[in-house]
Design goal:
The chain is an all-alpha fold. It is built from 18 helices and five strands. The strands form two sheets. It has a three-stranded antiparallel beta sheet with strand order 2-3-4. It has a two-stranded antiparallel ribbon with strand order 1-5. The chain is elongated.
Length: 599
C-alpha cells in the first residue's frame, strides 16, 4: 500500500491518539440526579434482564429433576422461586463490580460517567432481549455470556477493539471456558455415574437396593461437602476470598457431619421405605424410630411378606391413578421378555403389570409434543387466567415423547426403588445449586443497573458499585416471575430431550456441574452453568454404552446457541448504544421535555 493510501488510516490513528491524550472531564462529572428518563427506563431494562435469567438460566437447575420425576413442574418452580429469592436477597452481594466480570476498561469512562450509565442501560436491554428470544425458541443459553457479550459491544462501540480486555483475564478466558467447562463437567459426571452404575445400579433389584443404602453415607459426604465448597468459592460472594486453610477443613467437616446424619437418621428410614416397602412420608425422617413397623401402611409394590400386619385400607393411598408413573424403559435389549427371538427390534417399555409394551402413539409418555393447554369456555375464571399467565402449570413438562422413544430404548434403566434413593440427593443438590445461583449469577442483571444507580446518585464512576437491598428484592422478584411464566420452555427442552433422565443421573449431573463451576470461579473465569449441565448430560447419556442414547441433534442446537450468544448480544447492544450515544441532543433552553415551547 502506498503512503498516499495509508494517509487516511494515519489521520484516523492520530485523531484517536490525540483524543485519548486530551480527554477532559464532562461538566456532568460529580453532578448527581441527571437524566431522569435514563434512570426510569433502567428499571424496565433491569427487570427484563432479571426476568429472562429466571426464564432461561434458573430452569437449568431443576430441568433434570422434573424430567426424572423427582419433582413435578409446579413443585420445582415453587421450590426454585424460594431458594433463588433467598440466594438473591439473603446471600447476594451488596457490592458488585461496576462493570460485570471486568470485560472492558471502566476507568476510560470516568470523564463521561453518564455515558457509562447509558451503556449499562443498553447492556440490560440488549442482553435481556437476546436471552428472551433464545428462551422463546427453547434454546438454553448462558445469561452470563449474554451479559459479557453485551458489555463487549459497549467497549467496542466506545473505544474500538482496544476497549476490550482480550487476554485470559478477560474475553480469552471466556472463550476457553466454552470448550473446557462442558468437557470437564462431562468427565466428572461420567466418573460419578459409572461408579454408581457398576457399584449399585447394575446389580439385581434387592442387591442393588442394599448396596445403595450401604453407600448412602458416602454420597451424603460428597454431596454436602461439594455444596459447602461451592458456597465458599462460587455461591456466596462475601465468602469468595476465604482462605483454603478455612474452606477445605470446613467443607470436609460439613461432609462428615452429614455422612453421620445419614447413618443415624437416613439409612434406617430408607431401609424401611425401600426394602420393607413402608409408606413413610418424608417428614417422618427424624422420628421414624417411634413409628411401629407397618403403622403407616405399605406401598403397592412392597414385598407381600412385609404387608402382614398393615393398617386398614383407609391408611393406604386411595387414588391408584395418582400413583401411576411413566412406563419404565428397558436397557438396550433387542427383544422384549416373552417375545420370540428373531422378531424385528422395537423399542418397548414395561407396563404397570410388568409386561412389555411396544412404544407407539400415546402409550409412550403422555403425548408426543408439549402443547399449551387451551382455554375452554367452561373453565373457571382463575383457571383461564392461569393458563394465560402461567401455562407451564397446566402442561406435562418433561414428559417422555414419542419421537424420543428409540433413543430412550437404548438407555440403561435400574430398579425403580433403588433410583428412588437418589431423589433425596438430587433434590438437595438442586435446591442448593439454585440458592447459589441466586446469590452469584443474579449480578448479571443487577450489576449493570447498580452501575446506573451509582452514576445517577453520585455523578461519578467507581470500580465497585453499592447494591441497595431494595434492588436485590426487585431483581429477585423479576427472576421469580420469569421462571413462573416462561420457565417451562427450557425445562422441557433439556432433560429427557437430551437423554433419558433418572434421579441417579440427575444427581451425578448436578454434583459435577457444581464442582466445575466451583473450580472455574476460583480461577476467576466466568463459567456458564448451562454449558456445564449440558456437557454433563451428554456424558451421562454416553455412559449407556450406545451413542444413540443421546440426542446429538439437540446437542448441536445447544452448542450453536452458545456460539451465537456473545456475538449476538454484543452486536445488538453495541449498535443500540452507538445509535443512542451518537444521536443528536436538544440544546438546553429550547424547551424540549420542559412542557412548553420557548420561541
Amino acid at each position: 500500500m502506498s503512503i498516499r493510501g495509508m494517509l487516511p488510516y494515519m489521520m484516523l490513528f492520530a485523531s484517536i491518539s490525540a483524543a485519548a491524550a486530551t480527554m477532559v472531564d464532562s461538566p456532568e462529572v460529580g453532578v448527581p440526579w441527571l437524566y431522569k428518563g435514563l434512570i426510569t427506563w433502567a428499571f424496565f431494562w433491569a427487570f427484563l434482564d432479571a426476568y429472562t435469567i429466571g426464564a432461561n438460566d434458573v430452569a437449568n437447575s431443576f430441568a433434570n429433576a422434573v424430567s426424572a420425576r423427582t419433582l413435578t413442574y409446579r413443585s420445582a418452580v415453587l421450590i426454585a422461586c424460594v431458594f433463588e429469592f433467598v440466594g438473591v436477597v439473603g446471600l447476594g452481594s451488596t457490592v458488585t463490580d461496576s462493570v460485570r466480570k471486568k470485560m472492558i476498561q471502566v476507568t476510560w469512562f470516568v470523564n463521561d460517567p453518564y455515558i457509562l450509565c447509558l451503556g449499562m442501560n443498553c447492556v440490560n436491554l440488549g442482553g435481556g432481549t437476546w436471552v428472551l428470544v433464545a428462551t422463546l425458541l427453547s434454546m438454553p443459553v448462558s445469561t452470563t455470556h449474554s451479559v459479557i457479550g453485551a458489555i463487549l459491544g459497549i467497549g467496542i462501540a466506545s473505544f474500538g477493539p482496544s476497549g476490550v480486555q482480550w487476554d485470559w483475564n478477560g474475553f480469552g478466558g471466556v472463550v476457553a471456558s466454552w470448550f473446557i467447562s462442558p468437557a470437564l463437567t462431562g468427565v466428572l459426571a461420567a466418573i460419578f455415574y459409572l461408579a454408581t452404575k457398576f457399584l449399585v445400579l447394575k446389580h439385581p433389584d434387592e442387591v442393588a437396593a442394599r448396596r445403595g443404602i450401604a453407600l448412602l453415607p458416602l454420597y451424603f459426604f460428597f454431596a454436602f461437602g461439594t455444596v459447602s465448597g461451592f458456597f465458599f468459592v462460587a455461591g456466596i460472594p462475601a465468602l469468595k476470598k476465604t482462605s483454603y486453610n478455612i474452606t477445605v477443613p470446613v467443607s470436609f467437616g460439613v461432609g462428615i457431619f452429614f455422612g453421620l446424619f445419614c447413618i443415624i437418621f437416613v439409612q434406617p428410614w430408607v431401609r424401611r421405605w425401600v426394602l420393607d416397602g413402608e409408606d413413610l412420608p418424608w417428614y417422618t425422617l427424624l422420628y421414624h424410630f417411634t413409628i411401629p413397623k407397618g403403622a403407616m401402611g405399605y406401598t403397592e409394590d412392597a414385598p407381600e411378606g412385609d404387608k402382614k400386619g398393615s393398617v386398614e385400607d383407609g391408611h393406604m393411598m386411595a387414588d391408584a391413578a395418582a400413583m401411576q408413573q411413566q412406563p419404565m424403559m428397558v436397557y438396550n435389549n433387542t427383544f422384549a421378555p416373552g417375545m420370540q427371538q428373531g422378531m424385528p427390534a422395537m423399542p418397548y417399555v414395561m407396563s404397570q403389570n410388568g409386561m412389555p409394551m411396544q412404544v407407539s402413539g400415546s402409550a409412550f409418555g403422555f403425548g408426543s409434543v408439549i402443547q399449551k393447554e387451551e382455554v375452554r369456555e367452561e373453565d373457571p375464571a382463575y383457571i383461564k387466567w392461569g393458563k394465560r399467565l402461567v401455562p407451564g402449570f397446566f402442561m406435562d413438562v418433561g414428559a417422555l415423547r414419542e419421537e424420543d422413544a428409540a433413543m430412550h430404548a437404548k438407555a440403561f434403566q435400574a430398579y425403580s426403588r433403588t433410583e428412588n434413593m437418589f431423589k433425596m440427593l438430587q433434590l438437595t443438590t438442586c435446591c442448593f445449586f439454585s440458592m447459589a445461583h441466586g446469590a452469584n449469577d443474579m449480578a448479571n442483571a443487577i450489576a449493570p443497573f447498580a452501575t446506573v444507580w451509582m452514576v445517577y446518585s453520585t455523578g461519578k464512576v467507581d470500580n465497585k458499585a453499592e447494591v441497595p437491598i431494595w434492588l436485590l428484592v426487585y431483581g429477585g422478584l423479576a427472576l421469580d416471575i420469569g421462571l413462573i411464566t416462561l420457565g417451562f420452555y427450557i425445562m422441557d427442552a433439556l432433560g429427557n430431550r437430551l437423554t433419558l433422565q433418572s434421579p441417579s443421573r440427575g444427581f451425578c449431573i448436578e454434583i459435577s456441574a457444581m464442582f466445575t463451576v466451583m473450580t472455574f470461579s476460583r480461577l476467576g473465569v466466568p463459567v456458564s452453568t448451562t454449558h456445564c449441565i449440558s456437557g454433563a448430560t451428554a456424558a451421562v447419556g454416553l455412559c449407556n454404552g450406545d451413542p444413540g442414547a443421546v440426542n446429538w441433534k439437540l446437542i448441536g442446537v445447544i452448542c450453536f446457541g452458545w456460539l451465537l450468544t456473545c456475538p449476538c448480544a454484543g452486536i445488538l447492544t453495541g449498535l443500540l448504544f452507538w445509535a443512542v450515544a451518537s444521536a443528536p441532543s436538544p440544546t438546553p433552553g429550547n424547551g424540549f421535555f420542559s412542557g412548553h415551547y420557548h420561541g
